[in-house]
Amino acid sequence: MANTSWMERLKQRWKLGSISQVFVVLVVFACTGFTVLFIKKPILGFLAGENGNTTFASVLYYIFILPLYNIILLAYGFLLGQFTFFWEFEKRSVGRIISAFRRTKK
User: Fold this and answer.
1) pTM confidence score
2) What is the Cα–Cα distance from 49 to 45, expressed in whole angstroms?
3) Which of 16, 31, 32, 70 could form a disulfide linkage to 21, CB 3.0–4.6 angstroms apart?
4) Per-residue pLDDT for 2 more than 60?
5) pLDDT(6) > 80
6) pLDDT, greater one: 100 or 33
7) What is the rounded distance in angstroms from the CA atom of residue 17 to the CA atom of residue 11?
8) Residues 1, 11: contact at Cβ < 8 Å?
9) pLDDT at 106
């Protein structure tokens, strides 16, 4: 395992079929990140209005961007043929969030 490349380790961790599939998954994450980056300024402008980038607008942005990020991630995954991977990824992520809230309530 010491000589295994990082792409091969990702392939095994994510249970993917090939290195090219790992590359596509990484491209989907990158495209989603860039999209969120490019829409941040218009969203903050909409939320803050003429006041500019206020703290309240920033807090609202982070509340709204989480579900939007997930939708964009699924959309890019669909466009690049990796919807099943990202759908399973989303289900695991939501499951972890729900279980974290359940643990803190006890």
Assistant:
1) 0.82
2) 5
3) 16
4) no
5) yes
6) 33
7) 7
8) no
9) 54
- Look-up: residue for tokens 């079929």? 17
Give me 36's structure tokens: 């969120």
Q: What is the dihedral of CA 44, 70, 27, 12, to 10 degrees?
A: 140
> Cα–Cα distance between 75 and 32 in angstroms, integer?
9
- Sign of torsion over alpha carbons 63, 79, 24, 31: negative
Helix H, strand E, coil C: the string for the chain is: CCCCCHHHHHHHHCCCCCHHHHHHHHHHHHHHHHHHHHHHHHHHHHHHHHHCCCHHHHHHHHHHHHHHHHHHHHHHHHHCCCHHHHHHHHHHHHHHHHHHHHHHHC
